[in-house]
Amino acid sequence: MLEALLLIGLGIVTATMANLGIAVFNDGLRPIVPENLEGRMSRKELGVTAFAMSFGLVIGYGIPISISGSILLIHSILLGTDIIGLSFKRGKLSTAAAGALGGVYGAGIYFGLQAVVKAFEMLPLNFIDGFNKIGEPVVVSFMVFPALAIALQFSIKKGVIAFLVAALARQLVVFSNTKGLIQIDGTPVVLSPEGIALIVGMAFLITFAMKEKSEDQSLSTLASMFTDRVTRIKKFSWIVMISGGLAAAATNLLLIAGDPISLSLLADGKISEGGIASLAKAIGFVPLIASTAIATGVFGPVGFTFVFGVGIFSPNPLVAALLGALVIFLEIQLLSKMAKFLDRYPGIRASGESIRTSMTRVLEVALLIGGANAANAIVPGLGYFGIAGFYLLNEAAGRPIVRMAVGPVGAIAVGILGNILVLLGLYTPPQ
To answer: Which residue windows are transmembrane per the record (predicted)?
Structure first.
């Protein structure tokens, strides 16, 4: 009951915030919302845009990954409430209706996912176990994104250096764990190889970005031009705090996760590693979320996404909710100082887009490999054939399905096809 109430509450609050233009989850929508708030775009156009930008990601990305780990990827919920909130006109009754529908959507996602998983388990060919392989390459591949971001923003040479040092750090941690070199009171300490590699890569990225320093104070565009928009975000901080608290509490219960990497780790019972990955991802996204929030006056319903790490490391849901709300409050209060910092270090501000691009590319590759492995585990031989064909035909058709979704959706399609073959007597699952 608590889990369902948390998702219903999260759906109500986030759909309401989207409707009022206070906060939206899709980074691409954030710069568009002010166009409607300031009268340059109709509400109908905004709703259609939100649907076009988010619906495919909900169906093809959020839900399949949620099924693979039996933990809800936050995109499944918040991209949906973006669509709901922005599709309704602003007004007392319509805003209330948007919030109510957001709550219904949250309940539908919670109970619907359970029903889908149970339905899959009843099929003659249960492909849930094979489907879980989708997340395996994601965890290892994720540590590449800082090196790729460096290569995109600075130079391929610097990217290669960061990649090699991060890879070396990973292997040193593997060696240390194997030999038990790090101990506390005689007890070996096991570190996360991928987590350490990620930290090393992020250290390189931040170091290179901070070398680009602006000495011309007249260029302080964020801090000086968007004071009113930062003030608007602070005005509505209380409702964003509620959203952050609900998200942190739900994460503490392992009900939701903020990204596919931490979701895969949490699904495998690697709580600490999942928390580290979640915090590293949040650090990487600060420049992008902060700069778009400052420039538009529209925040994110989970802030800079640190609330997920807070939820993972909290001892219980109540503490997670309180800390999550506090973290959102501090993030909003620090926006003005962040604007000055981003103006002072333009390399950090510019890194937001390169980080987003690199994460997207890494996930595209990792989820395609994971989808292929899952599909082949479900129906050996046919699985690789199906994913390869699905990917290439999707590209030839102009990419109607985003690349990140091809692996998970393809694996589901192979699973359904495998069940049809079993029913027709054309395939016998291995015992």
So the answer is: 6-25, 46-63, 69-88, 95-117, 137-154, 161-178, 190-210, 236-257, 288-311, 318-336, 365-393, 405-427
Domain boundaries, the chain: 2-126+214-344, 131-213+348-423
Rounded to 5°, angle at Cα 354 from 339 and 132: 115
Percentage, residues of the chain above pLDDT 90: 36
Structure tokens at 423: 């029913």
Its sign, for the CA torsion 254, 259, 260, 264, is negative
389's CB contacts (< 8 A; 6+ apart) are none
Q: Kindly state the DSSP code that residue 345 receives in the 8-state scheme.
A: -
Looking at this protein, which amino acid is placed at residue 100? Answer: A
Distance CA 15, CA 81 (A): 5
pTM for the full model? 0.76
Structure tokens at 155: 């130079």
pLDDT tens, position by position, 350-383? 777 787 788 778 878 888 998 899 899 888 989 9
Cβ contact 352:287 at 8 Å: yes
Q: Which residue, among 113, 353, 384, 370, has the nearest Cα to 255 in the 3D structure?
A: 113
Torsion of CA 32, 35, 242, 332, to 10 degrees: 90
Closest by CA to 43, choosing from 96, 1, 103, 83, is: 83
Nearest to 348 by CA among 294, 306, 295, 287: 287
- Give the SS3 label for residue 5: helix
pLDDT of residue 215: 57
pLDDT in tens, 134-166: 777 877 787 788 899 899 988 999 999 999 999
CA-based end-to-end distance of the chain: 37
- The predicted-structure confidence for 199-254, as pLDDT tens digits, reads as follows 888 889 888 888 876 655 544 555 556 678 888 889 999 999 999 999 999 999 99
